[in-house]
Amino acid sequence: xxxxxxxxxxxxxxxxxxxxxxxxxxxxxxxxxxxxxxxxxxxxxxxxxxxxxxxxxxxxxxxxxxxxxxxxxxxxxxxxxxxxxxxxxxxxxxxxxxxxxxxxxxxxxxxxxxxxxxxxxxxxxxxxxxxxxxxxxxxxxxxxxxxxxxxxxxxxxxxxxxxxxxxxxxxxxxxxxxxxxxxxxxxxxxxxxxxxxxxxxxxxxxxxxx
Length: 210
Prior knowledge:
CATH class: Alpha Beta
Number of strands: 6
Number of helices: 7
CATH architecture: 3-Layer(aba) Sandwich
Largest sheet: 6 strands, mixed
CATH superfamily: Phosphoglycerate mutase-like
């Protein structure tokens, strides 16, 4: 089995450094462009199935990539791979996180969570349950999974040699892909933040600084 775990393309809130979470924001022009470029570069990859977060930015990214890569598969949706819920901080600038909130980036697995929202451990529990359920099918298929930055990191955190290194130093780039493959039912990460467009187009909106 092979899983292409995809972060959605850029949105206006991403480019503005805003905590997006469960706000249902569509892709902006650059986000669509990155998705088109990624899909065109992924021609030759055959996807047997596609599962997306229900948020429009993830859905739209997956639709573009499937179209441009020549994969005509019906998309399914799963609430478990939605982005983290920022609670009272939804729609707030990253700079308003404050010292306590910055633990979300600096020590996420020990971060208590956002007021009226979720913790990183909450997101790990639901996203990892989703991936393990797919792995248990052992169906030999190749999946495109369209999700979000924190959710992507959470989904594979338990597969890392060092789970404490949650972010790999930064949030996943827009339209980047983390690849997980299974052998004998055992999953392993084979690529992290792979981009299928010119790396000069990468914008690291949320670099983690100690």
